[in-house]
Amino acid sequence: MQRHQFNWEIRPKSAQGCVSSCLLFGLIFCALFWLTIKFYSIVFSLVMTRLGIAPRLGIPLIITVFFGCFINLPLYLVLQCQGRRYYKFLPVLISLTPGSYIRSYIGLNVSGGLIPIVLALYQFHRTQPLAILIVMTIVALISYFFVTVLPGIGIYLTFSGFWIVTLIAVLASMIFIAAFTEMGLVTSGVARLDVPVAFAGGVLGTTIGGDLLHLKDLHVNRVASVLSIGGAGLEDGIAKCGISALIIAEWLPVVGELFSFN
């Protein structure tokens, strides 16, 4: 009798606790969702402004980025036919001879590779090309030593290496843009040239030093899967390094002024 009474009393409390937990979880989820939307909207508008992207391209760019993470454009094919392998570089049309098949290939992800690289190359037209080349070279040399190569699997930029590469891209862009400004070598009409230079140098530097220079270490001939440059989409080191460098370069002077004692 006492046992039955104990169970009867605890059920309403359990139901009440479940409802409270669900409400708390819902509030936390809504708050995080709102903060995420707010954060990404700020970042997106900042990227559009600093990289010189026309406002009318905003919606098409979002759609392309969303669906592009599922698309890998083939750059290098490893084909096999009757026990022999042959290769195609930058295949425009993939035509297979009878009895042959694609064993593996290296691709370029649209969201994580193609779009950041195209936007980075566009900055050569808008900003200071020499500054981008210098920052790109510095980032490429440093990122070369901070990646982890897993033969047959992929190339990964370490967590500490990611932040080192990003901060170096930011600082190098600020230093060289300031120097070129003093020498009168900057392009007029573009505000905060160091921001797009940091983005372009970060993207192109990690692409060259982190990925392209390490392709030989992947041993593509032994791979039976797809290897994709920028395959993680916006979470890949190429896009993430460029966007992070852009954000840090944008806000670092503001933070410096807040903590300045002058």
TrEMBL record:
User: Which keywords appear in this protein's UniProt record, sorted alphabetically?
Assistant: Membrane, Transmembrane, Transmembrane helix
Q: Which residues cross the membrane?
A: 21-47, 59-79, 100-124, 130-150, 162-181, 193-213
Cross-referenced Pfam families, in alphabetical order?
DUF1614
| Superkingdom of origin organism | Bacteria
Name by which UniProt lists this protein: Uncharacterized protein
Protein's organism? Coleofasciculus chthonoplastes PCC 7420
